[in-house]
Amino acid sequence: MIETKILTRKKFSSLVEYKVRLYSLSYIDACLEVCEEEEYPPEDINKVLSTPLLEKIEAEARKNKLVKGSTSAMLPI
Fold first, then answer.
1. Would you give the distance in Å from CA 27 to the centre of its chain?
2. Phi, psi at residue 68, to the nearest 5°?
3. What's the chain look like in SS3?
């Protein structure tokens, strides 16, 4: 019997959040790990990224100065 894997936004987000919590990975690294494990092409990741997950990735990228953006608007924690 052939089993097809369907990767939904909800499943992808759950897997990424799990890896971030369990292994203390960054969101970007966790996304790539999930893509590798699920044999999902990373170049198609925009199809399974939920809005909250995308916002977390963007915030992480700004924090690590990986993208241009104003960090002065962020409150220190």
1. 4
2. -75, 140
3. CCCCCCCCHHHHHHHHHHHHHHHCCCHHHHHHHHHHHHCCCHHHHHHCCCHHHHHHHHHHHHHCCCCCCCCCCCCCC
- Distance between CA atoms of residues 4 and 17, nearest Å: 23
Q: Is the pTM value of this prediction over 0.85?
A: no
The tokens of 58 are what?
Answer: 């963007």
Question: Could you say which residues of the chain have pLDDT below 50?
Answer: none
The number of CA neighbours under 13 Å toward the Cβ of 7 is 22
**What is the tens place of the pLDDT at every residue in 64-73?**
888 876 555 6
Phi/psi class of residue 66: alpha, beta or left (left: φ > 0; alpha: ψ in -120 to 50)?
Answer: alpha
Confidence (pLDDT) at 27? 96
